């Protein structure tokens, strides 16, 4: 292993005089004839001299040192790291889509507009909502769009006293941040002993100041809000809007329509439920849907079909305006559209059912060693915990690092905050039983190590190119050199 790492590290220093991987055309015009002297280099740039083959080998080696969804089980809770069909990548790269200029006339991009229009209609069908905008560039951007849509709705009614947004402690962490960024005061409420919204706490928090209640369904402890319809009624009775964070929609797609819950506004993550690759900051897409009474306040434009032609319509007098310079991340929207066209309603239902089945399989298989914090059937993910008194000084972060040695990416850890030593595991529907069994076996082995040789877990990882680091120093003084 050390020899392999040494070989890989040396590859960055493989430059040798005279080697080349590319040849440039002969210079026909000199920069000195056009640029002032102060802008010209005083010496030649020190560029590496290396062959194309060695360059390819170098970057291939680097890629092999990274964990990725295409190589390993990636149970990152709340992120829905499912298989991304490669055919969608090919389709999204078709020149007619990928090379279209943002300022191209509508007549030249009818195919793109038709795809976007059809995607809007499909999202309306699976959620039951009246209208959708594809403008938001990511899930958090969708949240901001949704809450600003709620503000536009209240402002149009001259209901300016509504200055608060209620957020349960089982919401995604972006929810309170979004409400704050939109200018609202965030009112946090605690969950009940069952991990779901405490209706009495909600009742006490609701008032004529409440603009919206942001509910993550299923929530971040992996549970479906069983009283969601009653909660919606409470919210509406107070004159507020019910916002649903739909980032975990993979557990509901084909099974339930949020409109039936009484949802007024929601966002979806095309880069989660709808199988577009994501991670590392992008790309993303966070379409926002709204019920009929809120739809006029969504951002403009939206794609409409008029007289057989598709157009970006900006005739929305009550719209909050634009949230993005151009209409959505086309390549991500196209992947989401392919996903919905590939599967029918029956198959979408099976996707959700298998996602729920896989999460519960892991939850039950690890019971007695790593228990679910809320001991009840979960939805898309299970949130496990441990008793520190029984772990010989081993913490969740140690377990996460030890999993790397066994060939598995770590789950989301220490979130949600209401679960001590949390491990949020989302296997998704695309993992086989054999893969789940292998993951459970690795967790079982780590548990045995905790009991018999805890130091090996505390010192993990052992087999990675980067060993255990001082995380505080790494954050404050990152070493960005290879």
Instruction: Tell me roughly what share of residues is in helical segments.
Output: 25-40%
**CA-CA gap between termini:** 17 Å
Give the class-level CATH name of the largest domain: Alpha Beta
Q: Mind summarizing the main beta sheet?
A: 7 strands, mixed
Query: How many helical stretches?
Result: 15
Compute the CA-based radius of gyration.
26 Å
Q: What is the strand tally?
A: 13
CATH topology of the largest domain: Aspartate Aminotransferase, domain 2
Beta content comes to: 5-15%
Average pLDDT works out at 92
**Ranges with pLDDT <50 over ≥5 residues?**
1-12
| Main sheet: strand order | 1-7-6-5-4-2-3
The coarse silhouette is: globular
Q: Please identify, by name, the CATH architecture of the largest domain.
A: 3-Layer(aba) Sandwich
Going by helix content, strand content and strand pairing, the class is: alpha/beta
> What is the ordering of alpha helices and beta strands?
HHHHHEHEHEHEHEEEEEHHEEHEEHHH
CATH level-four homologous superfamily name of the largest domain: Type I PLP-dependent aspartate aminotransferase-like (Major domain)
Q: In words, what does this structure look like?
A:
The chain has 3 domains: 2-64, no CATH class; 100-342, Type I PLP-dependent aspartate aminotransferase-like (Major domain) (Aspartate Aminotransferase, domain 2, 3-Layer(aba) Sandwich), CATH 3.40.640; 353-476, Aspartate Aminotransferase, domain 1 (Alpha-Beta Complex), CATH 3.90.1150.10. The radius of gyration is 26 Å and the shape is globular. It has helices at 2-10, 52-64, 86-92, 95-98, 110-127, 139-156, 174-181, 199-205, 228-237, 330-342, 345-365, 396-405, 433-452, 454-458, 471-476; strands at residues 131-133, 164-168, 185-189, 210-216, 241-246, 265-268, 288-290, 302-306, 309-313, 371-372, 382-385, 412-413, 423-425. Helices cover 35% and strands 11% of the residues. It has a 7-stranded mixed beta sheet, with helices on both faces. It has a 4-stranded antiparallel beta sheet with strand order 10-11-13-12, with helices on one face. Helix 5 packs across helix 10 and helix 11 runs parallel beside helix 13 (433-452). Strand 2 (164-168), helix 7 (174-181) and strand 3 (185-189) form a beta-alpha-beta unit.
């Amino acid at each position: 292993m050390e020899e392999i790492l040494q070989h890989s590290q040396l590859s960055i220093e493989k430059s040798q005089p005279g080697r080349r991987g590319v040849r440039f055309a002969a210079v026909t015009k000199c920069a000195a004839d056009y640029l002032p002297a102060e802008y010209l280099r005083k010496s030649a740039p020190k560029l590496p001299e290396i062959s194309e083959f060695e360059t390819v080998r170098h970057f291939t080696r680097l890629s092999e040192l990274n964990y990725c969804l295409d190589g390993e089980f990636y149970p990152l809770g709340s992120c829905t790291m499912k298989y991304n069909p490669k055919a969608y990548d090919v389709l999204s790269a078709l020149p007619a889509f990928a090379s279209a200029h943002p300022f191209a006339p509508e007549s030249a991009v009818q195919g793109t507009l038709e795809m976007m229009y059809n995607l809007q209609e499909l999202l309306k069908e699976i959620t039951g909502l009246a209208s959708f905008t594809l403008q938001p560039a990511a899930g958090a951007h969708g949240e901001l769009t949704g809450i600003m849509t709620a503000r536009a709705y209240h402002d149009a009614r001259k209901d300016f006293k509504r200055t608060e947004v209620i957020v349960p402690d089982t919401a995604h962490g972006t929810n309170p941040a979004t409400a704050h960024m939109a200018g609202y005061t965030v009112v946090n409420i605690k969950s009940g002993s069952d991990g779901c919204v405490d209706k009495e706490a909600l009742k006490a928090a609701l008032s004529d100041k409440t603009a919206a209640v942001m509910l993550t369904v299923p929530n971040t402890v992996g549970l479906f809000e069983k009283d969601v319809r009653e909660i919606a009624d409470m919210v509406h009775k107070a004159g507020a809007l019910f916002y649903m964070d739909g980032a975990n929609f993979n557990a509901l797609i084909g099974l339930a329509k949020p409109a039936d819950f009484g949802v007024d506004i929601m966002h979806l993550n095309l880069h989660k439920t709808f199988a577009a690759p994501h991670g590392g900051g992008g790309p993303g897409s966070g379409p926002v849907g709204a019920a009929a009474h809120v739809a006029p306040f969504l951002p403009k434009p939206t794609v409409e079909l008029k007289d057989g032609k598709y157009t970006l319509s900006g005739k929305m007098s009550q719209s909050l305006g634009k949230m993005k310079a151009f209409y959505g991340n086309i390549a991500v929207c196209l992947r989401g559209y392919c996903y919905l066209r590939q599967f029918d309603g029956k198959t979408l239902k099976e996707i959700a059912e298998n996602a729920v089945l896989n999460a519960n399989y892991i939850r039950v298989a690890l019971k007695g060693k790593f228990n679910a914090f809320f001991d009840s059937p979960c939805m898309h993910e299970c949130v496990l915990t441990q008793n520190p008194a029984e772990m010989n000084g081993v913490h969740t972060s140690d377990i996460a690092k030890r999993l790397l040695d066994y060939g598995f990416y770590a789950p989301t850890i220490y979130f949600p905050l209401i679960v001590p030593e949390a491990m949020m595991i989302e296997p998704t529907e695309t993992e086989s039983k054999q893969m789940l069994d292998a993951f459970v076996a690795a967790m079982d082995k780590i548990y045995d190590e905790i009991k018999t040789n805890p130091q090996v877990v505390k010192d993990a990882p052992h087999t990675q190119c980067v060993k255990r680091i001082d995380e505080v120093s790494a954050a404050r003084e990152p070493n960005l050199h290879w």
